[in-house]
Every structure is written in structure tokens, then in C-alpha cells.
Design a protein that fits this description.
About 35% of the residues lie in helices and about 15% in strands. The chain is α+β, with helices and mostly antiparallel strands. The chain folds into 2 domains: about 5-130, 2-Layer Sandwich (Enolase-like, domain 1), CATH 3.30.390; about 170-245, no CATH class. A hairpin with a 3-residue loop joins strand 3 and strand 4 (about 70-80). It is globular and about 60 Å long.
Length: about 250
């Protein structure tokens, strides 16, 4: 298992510290095939931690979309229950799909729990253990670091360690056929695709997949513009989400 940031860095350990409460004994080990053991702090204990730190705070859950097949829930974290609607310190979205399993029939509750857990982590109730948590999003939200060349004694790369190769220019244009684009497009390229039209102007598809996931379907089926990169990127993100849910 990786060393926790909580254990390595006293500043991180001090984040949201509550006298007499240590979240580490409440963490459990999750074992996954092909991966090392990982530590995880369940959402119920993140909520407990939050209540101890901010007894006057609140967590608001908003059902953004619910169908017979899936539910999308937003969770917002407020440090004071009297804070204005938009004065939350963290928020997160989660989508869960319905299936015939015991838990799959509770897809709305699962989406709610996942959204709360992510929002609390963003608020500092769990992010201390980010090195060890295994609930990773299927689409990267930023560029990764090549761990093979990371120098623990030189974390800021002052000695010139190269963390990643220079980006490669995509081998397609907006006029390239969608299927051809999909054949070479990476998830990183898809999530970094910036929208230049409509209400989402200036946002990346990675952001839209979190904030307004239903818009991805519109770009695939209803968008009539000339940009096939936008169509392909939206389709790749949707396909990836469906594959993860299958």
C-alpha cells in the first residue's frame, strides 16, 4: 500500500483536525485483482468527521436527473447551515446505473452516497488519503506524472527531471471522419476537448461530463456543426462511461 499523505505531511494531517478524533483506524482495506491493497474511508465516516468538525454545517443533495436506468445526483457541502445557496465550499456529481442486483436497484441512493463522498473529499475530509483511495474517475481530469522518473528527493524537479514527454499533435482534424478520429483519440484528448459553442462555451468535455453529462448525448446525436472532433470526443466519453457501468 502507498504511504498516506496524512502520515507523511504534518500540514496535510492538520487539515480539518478534530481533537480526539483520528480517521485512520476507521479506514478499511480494499483488495482488487491485479492491484495492490488500498485503504478507503467509507462515506459514513467522512460524514461523521464533517459533523464533528462543523456541527452547524450541512450537506445538500440534489437529484439532477433520474430515469428508469440511471440517476445523477449533486452533493454540496456548506460549513454553516445558514449559508447562501451558492456559498458551498465543495460540490460533486455522481451517476449510477440500475441493474437487477441487490445494490443496482438502489441506484439513486448509490449515486447520492458517491456524490457526498466525493464532495467531502474535495472539502478535505478524505483528500488526505488520496494516494491510497481507489475510486478513480474513468476519465483523467489532468495530466498524470510518470512515476518511473519521479524523484522523491527532488519533488519540484529542480534538478531537471523530465516528468512526461512533449505532447504529440493529434493525427486528425475537425473534418476527419468520426470513426477515424475515434480510432486514434485518447481519453485525455477527449476530456480536454474545449467547446466553443452554446451554453458550454469555454468548458472542456471533461468538465461537462461532470456538470452536465446529458449534454454529451446532444453533441453526439443533435449537434449539426462541422466539428467532428467534438462529436467523436463526446462519443468516446459516453462509451467509456457505459463500459465502466457494464
Amino acid at each position: 500500500m502507498n504511504t498516506l499523505m496524512y502520515d507523511k505531511n504534518p500540514v496535510v494531517a492538520a487539515l480539518n483536525r478534530v481533537e480526539g478524533f483520528d480517521p485512520r483506524p476507521l479506514m478499511r482495506v480494499i483488495s482488487k485483482d491485479g492491484q495492490g491493497d488500498q485503504l478507503y474511508l467509507d462515506v459514513q465516516f467522512r460524514k461523521l468527521w464533517f459533523r464533528l468538525r462543523y456541527p452547524e454545517g450541512k450537506i445538500r443533495k440534489l437529484i439532477k436527473q433520474m430515469t428508469d436506468d440511471f440517476a445523477i445526483v449533486e452533493a454540496r457541502v456548506y460549513l454553516d447551515r445558514n449559508d447562501a445557496e451558492d456559498n458551498y465550499v465543495a460540490n460533486a456529481f455522481a451517476r449510477r446505473f440500475r441493474d437487477d442486483s441487490e445494490f443496482g436497484l438502489k441506484y439513486m441512493e448509490l449515486a447520492e452516497t458517491a456524490a457526498i463522498g466525493r464532495a467531502l473529499a474535495d472539502a478535505g475530509f478524505g483528500s488526505q488519503f488520496a494516494d491510497a483511495e481507489g475510486d478513480a474517475d474513468p476519465v483523467q481530469v489532468d495530466a498524470g506524472v510518470d512515476v518511473k522518473v519521479y524523484d522523491d528527493e527532488d519533488p519540484f524537479n529542480v534538478r531537471g527531471v523530465v516528468f512526461a514527454p512533449a505532447p504529440v499533435k493529434p493525427a486528425y482534424t475537425s473534418a476527419t471522419d468520426v470513426e477515424a478520429i475515434l480510432a486514434s483519440m485518447t481519453l485525455s484528448e477527449a476530456k480536454g476537448m474545449k467547446v466553443n459553442i452554446g451554453a458550454n462555451r469555454g468548458k472542456t468535455l471533461g468538465q461537462i461530463a461532470i456538470d452536465r453529462p446529458g449534454d454529451l448525448q446532444w453533441y453526439v446525436n443533435s449537434y449539426s456543426g462541422p466539428d467532428n472532433i467534438l462529436r467523436a470526443a463526446a462519443r468516446l466519453l459516453l462509451n467509456t462511461a457505459m463500459d465502466k457501468a457494464a
